[in-house]
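Hey L., structure's done. Input below.
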Amino acid sequence: MDITLPDIVANLSLTIDHKRVRRFNISRANVWDGAVRGFKRTTYSETCEMLVKFTDDIGVLEEGIDTGGPRREFLTLLMKHLKDRPIFDGPEGHRFLVYNANAVREDEYYLAGKRISVSVVHGGPGPHFLSKDLVHYLAGQPSFKAPVNLITDEEIGKALPDIENAASLDALHECMMRHSTMLQTAGCLRHVATVEEKREIVSDYLQWYIIDCNSSVIDRFREGLSTLEILTALHPHPTLLAPAPALTAFDLEILFKPDLSPSGSNRRLKESQTMGYWADYLLDCKGRPGCCVCARCFDVCYWAVFTSPIWLGTTATNRVPG
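Output:
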């Protein structure tokens, strides 16, 4: 019997004690600060239910424990802030961990792993911005295939394509000598007998740059992921932290189910026309983010619904009045 991601998360969430509640006071203008205060509170426990109060909503108490809406919004915003922390580098959707001395002093790598675990188990999204190679490494499934364009360092980003594009053995030797210091630092400076070895040199350097030279902080991050048994579940199921699928017009179209008037009525005719306009609008927005006037709404749909493992494989029940 195949186990689904919702099944995995549901099993992990059995450790949550719904009778014990811990409150988070969060400002949408500074989500990270509120999260740090909440997680560092001495009474906090990841096995307690989360009650989120957004302080932006003056006089309104959002009961996150009842509906989960504020909690999921908070965890969604938290994951979005996390991907931009200085502990990560790399292009959008392919981020990897890098050493940062200040973050090490603050133990941010462990805390980042812990916050990811809390988000997934408490019904929020996972960190679907991580590179596949990092996720596979964390899951104990080394399968390194990182492309050169993951490197954001300008000098290294130019050196590796030079090696990769060497057309002859002499050109490869010359290129390796030109970048010998960089290659020697990574343990990749060696004798080559054929020009085809250039691919192995580039691959070895990328593995050193992304994984090996950051192994100490990756290990600390992994320790944080052991919270709520996420790391244990990740080993056989790396898709828990896999990159999120691209959001399509069809995904949004089926997300909402209209509550239509009786068939044959004048109002039903207008509703059908409106549904056609809505479908056309989604198609027009495809590949053109600038034309979307409700981008924030789409953004919330994307992160809170499509990237949360506990919602994967379920049918949307959002109903829109006709």
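The longest helix spans residues 266-285. The beta strands are 17-26, 48-54, 88-89, 96-97, 256-259, 318-321.

-- N.
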